[in-house]
Design brief:
The protein is about 25% helix and about 45% strand. The protein is α+β, with helices and mostly antiparallel strands and about 260 residues long. A hairpin with a 6-residue loop joins strand 1 and strand 2.
Amino acid sequence: MTVDSAAPFPSSQRRGGAAASRLARRGGQIGETSGRSSIEASPYRARASRQPVCAFAALGAGTPLRGGECGPVLLALVCTLWLHSVEALAGSDRLVFGLQAAYGLENGIPRNISHIQMLYAQPQVGIIVWDSPESRLLIKRFEIVSEGIIGGAIHPGGHLLGDTVMFRVSGNPRRKFIPFFNVSSGPLRTNLDEKAPELGGHVQFISQGGVGIQRRLNVKQSVVMEYRYFHMSNAGLTKPNPGFNGSMLSIGMRWNPTK
């Protein structure tokens, strides 16, 4: 029997071949679509892989956080640690609070150009480092205090916002009166330089030293009065930087609520 190569296949074979051809074309289209999707998605995967990953997981969840999600977690962590620290210090009777109102006046050393007058609040929170009332030394207590500066200049105008670190020592009490001495220094931000040529730039530093008297009202509360001499300038950050000196008087309250 001779088979003619040019003879058409039976209808069943033709249908099978057509189906196979359609499947092949469909498979090619699927492969092309899949390859194109992979290529299009690759930049997003690369960009995602470059995002910083926070080292902290969300409150014990095992999934690392991206950089944009890390800030609130760190803020909550810092606040929690700070609250626990305050509770620990309060429990040890070593936390000291204070609030004073201060009036500062520029003097003529070396010059008095703008006649600067300042009025500001001094919130304080500190730690009693050493306390020995029975000591033979003249110094009975040593404290490290963070003191804020919140206020402004009555003349020629401007705001003051800053903080200083203070070292304060107290002497021998006489009845209900306790003398003390302190030195402090720290940065502050002000726009006083726009109206007073003595200052250059919005960032200034204030260094001061003073003496005062503390009068006990009871075991926990005292009235405080003190005098300080201070210098304010920008520590050479910008020019000009003449700075100015002045005197400050303050009055306020001091208390240790856990003692």
